[in-house]
Amino acid sequence: MAETQVYKYTPKDFKSDQEVRWCPGCGDHAVLSSVQKALVELGIPKEKFAFISGIGCSSRFPYYMDTFGFHSIHGRATAVASGVKTANPELSVWQITGDGDALAIGGNHFIHAIRRNIDINIILFNNEIYGLTKGQYSPTSTKGLVTKTSPFGTVEEPFSVGELVIGAKGKFFARTIDTNVALSTQIYIEAAKHHGTSVIEVLQNCVIFNDGIHDTIADKEVRDDRTIILKHGQPMVFGKNNDKGLILEGCRKLKAVKLGEDGFTEKNILVHDTFEPNPGIQYMLANMKYPEYPVALGVIRSVDGPTYDIAVKEQIEGVKKTAKIKCMDDLLKSGSTWSVG
Amino acid sequence: MGKRSTVIEREEVVIRFSGDSGDGMQLTGTLFSDTAALFGNDLSTFPDYPAEIRAPQGTVGGVSGFQVHLGHSKINTPGDFSDVLVAMNPAAIKANAKWIKPGGTIIYDEGNFSEKNIEKAGYDKDPIIEEKLDGYNVIAAPISSMVKEALKDFGLDPKSVLRTKNMFALGMVYWLFDRKLKYTEDYFEKKFKNKPGMAEANKVALRAGYYYAETIEALTPTYKILPAEIAKGLYRNINGNTATAWGFMAAAEKAGLELFIGSYPITPATGILEELAARKDLGVKSFQAEDEIAGICTSLGASFAGDLAITSTSGPGLALKSEAIGLAVMAELPIVIVNVQRGGPSTGLPTKTEQADLMQALYGRNGECPVVVLASSTPSDCFHFAFEAARIAVEHMTPVMLLSDSYLANGTEPWRVPEMKDLPKINPPYADRNEKPFLPYKRDHEKLARSWAVPGIAGLEHRIGGLEKTVKGTVSYVPENHELMVNLRAEKVAKVANEIPNLEVYGPKTGDLLVVGWGGSYGYLITAVRELQDEGHKVSLVNFNYINPLPRNVKKVFSQFKKIVVCELNLGQFADYLRIKHQEFNYEQLNKVQGVPFTIKDIKEKCIKILEDK
Lengths: 341, 614
Known about the structure:
Chain A has helices at residues 28-40, 77-87, 99-103, 107-116, 161-167, 181-193, 215-218, 223-226, 280-286, 308-322, 328-332, and strands spanning 49-53, 68-71, 92-98, 120-126, 129-130, 136-137, 172-177, 198-203, 227-230, 237-238, 244-249, 253-258, 295-302, 338-340. Chain A is an alpha/beta fold. In chain A, helix 2 runs parallel beside helix 10. Chain B is an alpha/beta fold. In chain B, 36% of the residues lie in helices and 21% in strands. Chain B is built from 21 helices and 22 strands. Chain B has a 7-stranded mixed beta sheet, sandwiched between helices. Chain B has a 6-stranded mixed beta sheet with strand order 3-4-2-5-6-7, with helices on both faces. In chain B, helix 5 (143-150) packs across helix 9 and helix 10 (240-255) packs across helix 11 (270-277). The interface between A and B is large, with 62 and 71 residues. Strand 14 of chain A pairs antiparallel with strand 9 of chain B.
């Protein structure tokens, strides 16, 4: 991405003239604001941004951004975004999606974009519920959740977004909470700079149909003890008083411990390696659930690898270099032909 | 060159190669037709193969055929009945017995007519007797044992030896038609560049067949078909799928756009994706998507980003793409959807031909959702109509559906290749970057097309999507606005009629009967109509390539005939469409849904019956 020229934008430059229609108190407002803040920092001219969405509350997002935007159909934003990026790898392509849009109806496109490692940034708003259709369970709803379509509780296991991303050979996975604008902004910047598919799971609150679903971990009072913000090269310490940490128990399992208890000191605490290609520890971090563990926030995995869009471009350039056929006239006259008259 | 005791000079002849799907009949047929084309014959081919790659050996269901019709004059169809049948096993006799011309030549591999194989094909003892073919020119050639003998010093395993049986048979047919072996020999040298042993083995089998035919007296009469008298120019053989792919590449070049294909493999459309995937030299971006929906959605994304975007599919895939076509209609982005029709519904007859997706193409979406619909009518004009589809899509900012079918996709014919300078320039309606504010749904007056504002251009930032919009691009639920936009989108498609050619009448402009066809039935219809005309009937043909909108002169043309018969490979979808669009006429119908094209006989009989009815 070109950083030679300085673009002096403010978040306001990325606001469209459309009235934002999300419910008052919806977590989406904060995501919008974090993204607008992040774009300012990227040094990319405004006209190079394309925001692509599917269907769902979050998918109205492009209308509120003064960038190129395409509000597509349910589940297919990943495929549309893949086409945009492959057609023009110079664009900064952002996909806005939700837990239903990306993981239910669009699950197939989601895993294949990740597998291909197309350089798009996927912001997945996870509120564990279907909001736009007014309150049905989603593929990330906790088992047993009572909703309009599960009046006796769901009987399905939910997806864990990070587990799915890593399983699909994902190279970038981060998690944030809608209300933490500073952390979110920082993560969006890192996602934009990463070459390849970046998936950012936003734990987002649906104020109407699933209000407070993330409160257990996100509430001001408890969040320091129930979440951990991972930073590359930093020990995995958390807690209001920075007195807790994560250790590897028996090489196979993470364990949350209290420093100074049972002989654990800072020396025992794991140091986060965002860039480690082997996803073993990152996989365990992504899957941590309260109350056994703190929920991991921050960039959990960020590994470089070839991207699909550039590979397509380079393959074409490579073939062109030595090709005998340079234009349609060459092709039309190539191979077995014969002249009459 | 050996003696040729009886040489029959013929205007045209039909040859059918038939055997197990593993017998290499498609290759044999292709090599034969390429050789005939290079000689200067006009021709038309029809590969007919089972959906299973290796259907149960020796059964009728597993028979794979390749029919070639070649002639001294214009050839429009692969022909109804064959003059020569090459049958590699008893099942091939079973599948083709009723399609051999009385007194025709049958060459069969004696070595493969074992008791077991005869029984598998459903015969008691002797297929030739049981099919009452014994009065024909039947040649029982010991093909299997001859290739074993010819290749005994090659050190090949028995399987590889038997795999050259088709070349032995081809050699016999080359003798029969007095054709040179060079093209086929060159083919093997190229194909087995790194396996000179295999190249030599195939060449030896080919020559062994040729000399065997020369040696045996039974192989008379031999046929002679002079080169066709065709227009001057550079020619090549081309099938419909390749021609379609090339038409899009030509359109991209003429529009100054890069070509993007998002697609998922599906029979019989896969050839288009394969051909375009191979054309990195011309900069084609091919995206083999995870499913049909992603095929069109990646294309739509590429169209939004400023590429000439297409997607290719067949009926079941088109069903999956419906919602995204609706989005393309709403977003008013250019995209071409190629539907290579096959027998349906559902999985239906994947490798067979049909024209039953017409209503799906016209109406198969939610809401008022018009798209332009075109249909190719010969393997080579697939090039022209792919080009046309892309031109209309880009210049009118609309999705265009291009209908082909299995028969066109796989059929080949010689094609006089165009010069790129003779093709029209395509002008994308790019947005003016100085227009402030930019209104995404503002239209030009003539075409009602909106302009194309490609990401990357400062000042043109805008949002589009599936929700109903105002001209400014703002989401709107206002009742009057929705109705206005629905009408505008319909009118935009209707206005394409101003730029398409008039319907052409083949034959006199007035008469007793007008035969009406569309798309891929053209070859059979024109052949039948020409024969009827030669026999003194007042019959003419129109064949539609522009389905939506229809050409402007339909009413004028139709009103000059006493009767109209609509012929199509479905239960009457185009006839019904005409009943909606031009209710003032009475339409008779000829329909066929057997997964195979019409025969000329079918059409002529129907026409004569209609002419005789008072």
